TrEMBL record:
PANTHER family assigned: AAA+ ATPASE DOMAIN-CONTAINING PROTEIN (PTHR33295:SF18), ATPASE (PTHR33295)
Domain of life: Archaea
The protein, known as: AAA ATPase
Residue ranges constituting the DUF4143 domain according to the UniProt record: 239-379
Residues in AAA domain copies: 40-165
Amino acid sequence: MSYISQMSFQNPWWVDKNRILEDEHVKRAKVIVPPIDESALILGPRQVGKTTFLKTTIKTLLEREDPRSILFFSCDAFSKKEELISLVNEYRTLVNREKSAYIFLDEITSVSDWNTALLHLFNAGYFNDSLIYVTGSSSINLRKEMLPGRPIKKYVFYPLNFRVYFNTFYKKLIQDHVKVDEKDELYENALKLLPYISELNKALLEYIRRGGFFATSFSENPLSLYEAYKDAILSEFLKTERKESMFKVIIRKIIESYGSRISENTIAKDVNVSHTTIGDYLDVLEKLFIIRTFRKIEGGGKTNYRSLKKVYFIDPFFFRVMKIYSVGKDIDDIEIPLIVEGIVGEHLAREYKEVGYLHFKSGKEVDFSVGNVKVEVKWRREKEKKRYNNVDYVLTIDEFKKSDEQLTLPVSIFLYLISSDKFFYELTSISHL
């Protein structure tokens, strides 16, 4: 089968480079994400903006490059690695022979054995002197040595963190972010942000309901996009050949226990399946970039992988979408403190490798632990858990005070200061490998 006509259709700039301006992704792009200047595998949830990033990068390249040196192809329609190999072979032998190229393969993880196809293409020399961008919505088949010795970096394109959200839709306040273990520096920078607390809190309340997706951020009614995001999540999940009915039950259990410790055994008893089945589903949800799992940190900083875990959605808009899908109604105000807790955990997890929670024999807990730093979130909790008092940060709506050992800060200021300006995070998390 020849792919020339499909390539020609998806790459109209081969005929007229100005045709890129007619592309729907380019026309809708309100924010230009800076290009990556090296070959990259870019993973992340559906609807996060990966395709728009590719198309705006192509637009930039067309200002200086031969249009035929740029290939874009959406791999959604492919099912076998042989189709992918044939596509690139036809491009390199019929369209762009013996020249450097810029090759953009969108949603490559939908192709069976896509990783071995990429390795073959590298080994066969199809990518020599070329920049390769490949994107996908799943890290299920990803391994540390997926492309041994090949010059391709692995990144995750997450929904916007709160700092980037505020910089994009309000204003940029402070240039550098601060490490959580640099408490004195964080305090000094927090003082600089206090005059902006009203704006920061307003933005955080928006962020709780809109999340960090470009489409929801620009929409007057984010829930008008509910079906698109629900379908995007389900389509990726169902490709794993697991049951939607079980998926829906597990999602509901995650929401019901949000902010609390849960186990596979507890969920399994409620739905009458094995705990290994529940563990498998949770693992898949994490590798599809839908949830983030936090585990108990023991003495000496060791992670306990057998203890109860805490599970949050990677973005607050996912909470809304998945609650409507599994429960049938939107978020309640009483859930906002728990959503904020999940936002804090997600922001910490993007910046640091080992983030977990603490739980003591006395029953006391600490929401998040990063190395020796303990972080407690207290956003209008109505039912207080037993709290461990010796923490480094207490995060509230608008309290600000400093003692010898503890900083009490507004959540919005803390999130802004500890987050980077990144759109992409290098993929190093063990949970996704």
